[in-house]
Design brief:
- Helix content is about 35%, strand content about 25%.
- It is of the alpha+beta class.
- It has three domains: about 270 residues, BirA Bifunctional Protein, domain 2; about 45 residues, no CATH class; about 110 residues, Anticodon-binding domain (Rossmann fold, 3-Layer(aba) Sandwich).
- The chain has a seven-stranded mixed sheet with strand order 3-9-10-16-13-12-11, sandwiched between helices. A five-stranded mixed sheet has the order 20-19-21-22-23, with helices on both faces. A three-stranded antiparallel sheet has the order 5-4-6.
- The longest helix is centred in the C-terminal third of the chain and has 21 residues.
- The protein is globular and about 75 Å long.
- It binds adenosine-5'-triphosphate.
- The site of adenosine-5'-triphosphate has 15 residues, from strand 10, strand 13, strand 16 and helix 10.
């Protein structure tokens, strides 16, 4: 639990997200659908920022990574070859006592601890009832292509995007000018029929992944694994503004490792419900390429022109969920404080992820202010993520902008008509400066730059 946060933080975030338009329960008017959510106007902006920052760092700014988009539906043989049909399972146990809840056996200890009970207590974490022996439950959703629901037409909704990269390895190698080591990245929806979803958007049944397979020479994999662990940790702190004190890197124990991995480290965040995985960085070895070679009969080995060797590359995979980052950012940025006897809620989001960077607020609803303020907001759109708001009192509008994490608000008042100057209010310091409208774009750029520096300092460990 991040220091200084309220105990009911998740409940508070659920309500803030619904009220302000970040996250709504899916198909809510019909009672919702468990572990599926929709994203509102601000949620969409935040998600786009998360995706763009990831793509920029992982693809655009690199020479050695190419992007792809593979389809959600794939030939079902992919999932037989990858081992998912056989092994993408979780051990499920049922409570036979009072509560009849269903649990993941490997989560029982955490669930008991979250309820203040000993991790190795014998019964159900909820009601102490007896548990059934564990059964393996496959997490992949089944569906059918064509009109007949028969075995031959059965396909799966992908539980990860990774296989799209493996089956396209040769296509990308042959159509780009990449040589090993290089990576293939993509983002897109994944589906898992999770046994015990929950904690708001932490564990969903439909979610969005951002994954990269970095292909390297066998033997260099450990070094690349370490490299990517460091890179990814740095991204969460520098690009997302997550406080490093709330992050840790944890290497998996042998018995935790997936069927395809020899080493995996998780970047974990200290959520209100305990440490939880934010991102996984796995050494998948040559498992996937080899198994696709065997099942497809295609040669997916690589000829290294420098050393004249042929080998099947190893893959290092950093994999992270957009929704997981989303909840992490909200938890990490949420801040409550007393200001002049009133409670102020502020999301201290990094200015590059905040859904709105600059809000434009006319002091009153009078047309002499709203018209020029609207015009100003239109001009600023070309430079920043903006929002115009003329509803309610100025105090309430500032509060709303604080709650959605807007770093800067520009107020257009009665003096502005004559002196052609406006006030910039800073979200964190709540300071106000008056600047001429002529130089407004430059002044906002400067302030955002300062706000970036503050966010970085805070993330690296300076300030709260
Ligand atoms: P767990 O063991 O917790 O079920 P996992 O180790 O199988 O998860 P990965 O396959 O490593 O999860 O998934 C990679 C990343 O995708 C995770 O770090 C997380 O950010 C995201 N993710 C995985 N499952 C979900 C989910 N059900 N809902 C939202 N995000 C998810």
């Amino acid at each position: 639990m991040p220091a200084g946060q309220p105990a009911d933080l998740i409940e508070k975030l659920v309500s803030l997200c619904k009220q302000r338009g970040f996250v709504y329960p899916s198909s809510e008017i019909y009672g919702g659908l468990n572990a599926v959510y929709d994203f509102g106007p601000l949620g969409v902006r935040l998600r786009r920022n998360i995706r763009e920052r990831w793509w920029r760092r992982m693809v655009d700014l690199r020479d050695d990574v190419e992007g792809i988009e593979s389809a959600v539906l794939m030939n079902p043989r992919v999932w037989e070859a990858s081992g998912h049909v056989q092994s993408f399972t979780d051990p499920l146990v049922d409570c036979t006592g009072r509560c009849r809840k269903r649990w993941r056996e490997d989560h029982l200890g955490d669930e008991r601890a979250a309820r203040g009970k000993p991790r190795d207590a014998p019964g159900c974490p909820e009601c102490d009832g007896a548990l059934t022996p564990a059964r393996q439950f496959n997490l992949m959703f089944k569906t059918f292509t064509g009109p007949l629901e028969e075995q031959a037409a059965q396909v799966w909704l992908r539980p990860e995007t990774a296989q799209g990269m493996f089956v396209n390895f040769a296509n990308v190698l042959n159509s780009s000018r990449q040589r090993i080591p290089f990576g293939i990245a993509q983002m897109g929806k994944g589906f898992r029929n999770e046994i015990s979803p929950g904690n708001f958007i932490f564990r969903l049944r439909e979610f969005e992944l951002m994954e990269m397979e970095f292909f390297c020479k066998p033997g260099s994999d450990r070094e690349w694994h370490e490299y990517w662990c460091a890179q990814r940790m740095k991204w969460h702190v520098d690009d997302m503004g997550v406080r490093s004190a709330n992050l840790r890197l944890r290497a998996h124990e042998k018995e935790e490792l997936s069927h395809y991995s020899t080493a995996t480290s998780d970047i974990e965040y200290s959520f209100p419900f305990g440490w939880g995985e934010l991102e996984g960085i796995a050494d998948r070895t040559d498992y996937d390429l080899r198994t696709h070679m065997q099942h497809s009969g295609r040669d997916l080995s690589y000829f290294d022109p420098q050393s004249n060797e042929r080998y099947v590359p190893y893959a290092i995979e950093p994999a992270v969920g957009v929704d997981r980052i989303f909840i992490t950012l909200l938890v990490d940025a949420y801040h409550e404080e007393e200001v002049r006897g009133e409670r102020r809620v502020v999301l201290r989001l990094h200015p590059d992820v905040a859904p709105v960077q600059v809000a434009v607020l006319p002091l009153s609803k009078k047309a002499e202010l709203t018209e020029p303020a609207r015009e100003l907001e239109h001009d600023l759109r070309r430079h920043f993520a903006t929002e115009y708001d003329e509803t309610q009192s100025i105090g309430r509008r500032y509060r709303r902008q604080d709650e959605i994490g807007t770093p800067l608000a520009v107020t257009f008042d009665f003096d502005s008509i004559n002196d052609r100057a406006v006030t910039i209010r800073d979200r964190d310091a709540m300071t106000q400066v008056r600047v001429p409208m002529d130089g407004l774009v430059a002044a906002l750029r400067d302030q955002l730059e300062r706000s970036r520096a503050n966010a970085s300092g805070r993330a690296r460990g300076g300030g709260s």
